[in-house]
Amino acid sequence: MPKQKTHSGVKKRFSLTATGKVKYARPGKGHFLTVKNKNRKRKLRKGSYIAGKNADNIKTLLCK
User: Fold this and answer.
1) Could you tell me the CA-to-CA distances from 27 to 4, 18, 46 in Å, in that order?
2) Residue 51: inside a domain, yes or no?
3) What is the pTM (predicted TM-score) of this model?
């Protein structure tokens, strides 16, 4: 059976931590930043984690 390839879109958007959590960057920091207040932009700087079945699906696409 052939090897499973890593999904290139998932590879760019998600990363795994040492404990196995799936980390991603919050969306919404691309444009229209003058409309958003500074507290909102500061919260968007920090990453976030995905849990549950969604994390399992992403790990499958990352071949981990």
Assistant:
1) 28, 23, 11
2) yes
3) 0.80
pLDDT tens digit string along 16-55?
A: 999 999 999 999 999 999 999 999 999 999 999 999 999 9
Record the tokens describing residue 64, joined without a space.
């981990």
For residues 42, 55, 2, 9, the Cα torsion angle rounded to the nearest 10 degrees is -30
Containing structural domain, residue 22: 8-61
Which CATH number is 32's domain given? 4.10.410.60
Q: Which residue has the tokens 């590879």?
A: 11
Q: Residue 51 corresponds to which amino acid?
A: A
Q: For the chain, what is the domain count? A: 1
Residues pairing with 47 in the sheet: 25
> Residue 1 domain-assigned?
no
Pair of tokens at residue 59? 């790990």
